[in-house]
Each structure stands twice: as structure tokens, then as C-alpha cells.
Amino acid sequence: MTDTQSPAPAALAGIRILDFSHLLQGPFATQLLADMGADVIKIERPGKGDLFRSLTFRNKWVGGSESPNFLAWNRNKRSIALNLKSLEAKSIIMEMAKTADIVVQNFRPGVLKALGYGYEDFRAVNPRIIYCSGSGYGEDGPYVDRPGQDMLVQGLTGIMAATGQADAPPTPVGAGFSDQIGAMNMVYGILSALYWREKSGLGQEVKVNLLAGMLAHQNQEMVMALNFNEDFKRPRSGIGHPGMDAPFGTYPTQDGWVTIAMSPYRTLVGVLGNDDLLVYDDPEKLFAQRDEIWRKLAAETGKWTSAALMEALLEADIWCGEVKSHLQAAEDPQVRHMELVTSYEHPRAGTVKVIAPPVRLSETPPTIRKPAPLVGQHTREILREYGFAEEQVNSWLASGVAYADEARE
């Protein structure tokens, strides 16, 4: 699917983004916009690029050289590598800003501004520009100098204390959840600002932070805690939420695990075939004795295979599902039906398997047109587009103001 063009128009075609972001939050946001057709120009450090290019899981590299972390969040972008501390690089970027629509960055507060790339700097050359900043804890306050990393924010906002079992340590979510929520909020803010600009002709500054995002996305838990002045208490069993009663949770089978959500308890007991469990069929008991009930239900589900239990539960209209690993999820029949696993060709990594864009539009579908770029892969191409003379471009490349992966140009 590399460098192919969809016959359908792209929803954000003609929108140009100057992307200073790195790691996960900002790059995921700009990838979502790029999938919808925006021209995302990723501005990277000469030679080194985005920090995620050098970080990976278990020291595994796709194609022997490329970070899966970077490949996950940077498709459909072009890379230009510039030395941001150079005055000449600043003149290049401000020339680009004159026709850009959006700037995205997630450096620590004040870092880009100190280099001359704050909102006011961009607005001075383009009043229509939308400048989106992502941070860990906002732009000021007692935590402004703290590192705003995903797991740290999970710990601060209650989700870690509410996840897992009571006798276990607080449990982080098994993905970069805070960062991904932050990315979604970036897109939400940027698209809102774009719509306002269509009516007013004016750009604006958008600020997103992980702390606020994680609290907002736990609103039902926060409303419960705040209004009853009582924290949730984690169960000691496989109950799936600290505020829920039995049978809500995960249950063992002979060959795996299944999940059971909000379902009539009496109906579930009927499927499992042990009427002795009906003694717990009371709303107060189902919460107060939920750990005990879970253990007894688990003893019954453990007599079934996952497939047989799923068939019986679905037949009884019980809300249930299998528990699958990432590789098993990729082979799930519904995942395959929706073609949610796809791939692109990368100049170094070869075929890279990825997850397809999650949003579908009937008239302007998102597409994967480009692989994640190499550092400075498009430096010369982008500078040419902005009308800089070849001699000038060569001079910048020679002096280190700019950097290009010439082998891939």
C-alpha cells in the first residue's frame, strides 16, 4: 500500500502540518491526520531524528534496523531534518510556516518557545496558523518541570490504583494509554480549531495535556468518587472493574479465559448448571461477596473449553467474549473481515505489518500512502517545493543546517 493514491478524495487534502513532535502523543495525532490526507512534514534532528527511532521493545528491530515504535506512529509523513538552533533553519521553517495550516509539538513547556518556535513566532508570519502543544501536566504549575511520561500520568490519575487485583501492586494499562488519549485530544482540538478558522479566518493555540486527558476519560469513575467521597476498592479476584459486582470479570476455562460483562446472574448460573450458586442472586450480595462469587463461578467455567462456553453463553444472550493475545487478536475472524491488519513497504525494513486506520468515511476514506520516513528522507524534496534554489539547498546540506538521507532521495 506504499505511495498508492486512492481514487477517492482525501478529507484533509490541502492541509499542511509542520510536525515537531516526537515519541508517541504528537506523532500518533499527526499520523491520524495524515491518514485523512494531510501533508505532514516531520521536522527532525539531523541524523538522529525522533527519539523513538532509537527505542524498541526487547531489542527487536523490524528488518534488522527500524524501530517498531517509530514505524507504528509515523506513516504517511515526510521527513525534513534541520538544526533548530541554526538561524538559517529558523528562516527556512518560518518560510514554510507562511503556507502551513497547523504546527504540532510535544516538547516540554517552553523548550520550542526558547528556540524561537512558539505560537507567537508562527502567528507573526501566519495569523491563520493553528498551533497545538501537548504536554504532561500543562504549561505551568507545580509539576511543569516533571517528565510527562505515560505510566507516570496513569499513576497520578487513579487508573493504576483502580486496575488489577487488591493483593497485587497498582497495575498500569498494557499500552501507552495516556499518550494515546492525549493524541486523540490533540486531533479533537485541531479539527475544532480548523472548523472555527473556516468561519472566522483566524488561527488559534490549542493546548492538550496528559493529566487532564486521563482524568476526563475516567469521568464516570471520578464522578462516582467525588460525589460519594469514596474511592473504589479493587477486588481480590478477576472482577473486571473496581466498581462492579459479580459476575462482571474474566473467568478461566480449560484452555484459556473468557470475559463476562453485565449479564443476568440467574441466567448465567443456569448455563453453568449449578443451582447452588443461586443463593447469591441478590444485588447486595453480588457486590459485597463478589470475590467469593467469582471463585465459585470460576470453578464452574473451568470445566468448559472456551469455545463450548462461548457457544452456550451466546445462546443464552450472555454478554461475553474470548480473551486473546495480540497475535490471536490479529487472526480474529471479525478483525480479518474488517481488514484491520494491513501492511506497507519500507525502504529498509521491507514489508511492515500495521493496523489500518480505525475510522471509515464513505466519500473520503483514509489511506496508507507512504511508509514511515527515514530521517531527512524528504529534505531536498520539501526545500525544492518551497522554491529554494538547488545551490542554496546544497549549501545548507554541506554546512549541517539541513540533513538528507541522500541514498533514499
UniProtKB/TrEMBL annotation:
Q: What is this protein called?
A: CoA transferase
Q: Which UniProt keywords apply?
A: Plasmid, Transferase
Q: Which organism is it from?
A: Sinorhizobium mexicanum
Instruction: Report the superkingdom from the record.
Output: Bacteria
Question: Which PANTHER family does the entry mention?
Answer: BLL6097 PROTEIN, SUCCINATE--HYDROXYMETHYLGLUTARATE COA-TRANSFERASE
Entry keyword annotation includes Ion transport: no
GO molecular function terms noted in the UniProt entry: CoA-transferase activity
Pfam family name, one: CoA_transf_3
